[in-house]
């Protein structure tokens, strides 16, 4: 195991986080807030530790998927542990567990909060809270790949371990340029949303925080009522951009280079929009009697469908009061999630497409045993390894989900609360139903339950296996071993 490279990556991540912490420091200067000193101290700590960890460069920068998963999992844990320090030491979130919960929720773009009065926080804290969504949306390691070259093809192992979806490939020959291209698209869409929000007379600070939350599909609001108090125009801008950030970024690459036919032929994206339009139509019809006309029903339905399927978690209405049919559809959308290769969470549309086609294939094999059929996506056969990985992912997801619901049940809360709390965290959504509904929060859970939910948030964002690999006994044996192998373990 290339432990020196893992150390180097962790140090680089800390230096990046220390640099990014300067943004809330600047915000504190602008608004003359004393809380900024805590962000500055944390930034200095991150940079100092990062420099110490990267002072000696590894002899070899080559590492394999196992190291990629370990480096990714530890990077997100380090990000969260250091990122929560300003919340805790400033006293704005006096409990370390709560501060860590809020920070993990931010970086994993979950948006589940323990705060009862968001508006009581300082501007610098609010900005950092929303900015963690933006950092975690595309992934800090993707940013790292964009600025630090790694040799031997090792960089794709980091990308695979961090990026959401069943598979990750290169858009251009060099992975470094792929990472830069992804961040270029990400920044471009974020800037466009900020401009459109400003055009709707939204204050600059509100626009920045809202755009950060939308781009990362996170959902931390800076108002106690989320986005309910903003105009219909602003809500529609956020709705549209939530949907756009849930699209596979490969589609934007094709559009950017005028490969329109390839963009339009992406089956996953077509199903993604079909699910959205169908869900909006059914929910709008179902809640029509509770709204001020058809347009209001469509607006509310579109916003909440976009928020849930992209796992953003913003709210424009208290959907916990909606009819059972609408709430059932929203819960189902929690599991579907956005497209692979987007900033959204959930199981992903592509996996459901593969699973459904696998079922159809198996049914056909029972009816016509001699016919050989392959699962195809975008007109191309899906490799057996991808189908197997999708099935294993789904099984692992359900096992982890079931154990998490069981763990929460010891508190004695109702099943709907526990079920949707786990669904909202493992799918990186934020709000659930009942005691964790859009007007509630996660403060009332015990410390044990909060750590279960924090694990679910990290596991969901990292696609389960990188975090599970980190917990494997063999990995820890290798990491703690002083043995220096002649060649790297694959």
From TrEMBL:
The chain crosses the membrane at residues 12-31, 37-56, 68-89, 131-150, 181-200, 233-257, 269-287, 329-347, 392-410, 451-476. It is found in: Cell inner membrane. It comes from the Bacteria. One of its GO terms (cellular component) is plasma membrane. K(+) binds at residues 109-110, 218, 311-312, 428. It holds the Pfam family TrkH. GO terms for molecular function: metal ion binding; potassium:chloride symporter activity. The keyword ATP-binding does not apply. Its main location: membrane. Keywords: Cell inner membrane, Cell membrane, Ion transport, Membrane, Metal-binding, Potassium, Potassium transport, Transmembrane, Transmembrane helix, Transport. It is a multi-pass membrane protein. Belongs to the TrkH potassium transport family. This is Potassium transporter KefA.
